[in-house]
Structure formats: C-alpha cells, structure tokens
Design a protein that fits this description.
The chain is mainly α and 54 residues long. Helix content is 63%, strand content 0%. The chain is built from one helix and no strands. The model has no long low-confidence stretch (mean pLDDT 87).
Length: 54
C-alpha cells in the first residue's frame, strides 16, 4: 500500500527535530510580538488617561 499513486505524498520533514525547533522559535517570536503590542496598548491607555482634560 505504500506505492499507492492516489495517496497524498507524506511530508517527511514535519516530524524532524529541526522542524520542531523552527516551530518553537516561530511561536516564541509571535508571543513576544503580541505581548509587546499588548503592553504598548496598556501604556497608551495610561498615557491618554493621564493627559485627558479634567
């Protein structure tokens, strides 16, 4: 059954250690970017609240 031409080709690199390392690095990059955006938004709220006309 491994020579079935109708079967989709398997991605042999999807389970490798190098693939997993890249996936973890990408996830860390996304988490860092999102956390900085959230912190910047919170900082902006404090800044605007401090400078709001009273």
């Amino acid at each position: 059954m491994t020579d079935d031409p109708a079967a989709p080709p398997r991605d042999l690199g999807a389970g490798s250690e190098k693939y997993k390392e890249k996936a973890v690095a990408f996830r860390v990059l996304i988490y860092v970017v999102v956390s900085h955006l959230l912190a910047g938004f919170i900082w902006l709220l404090f800044y605007l609240g401090e400078h709001a006309p009273k």
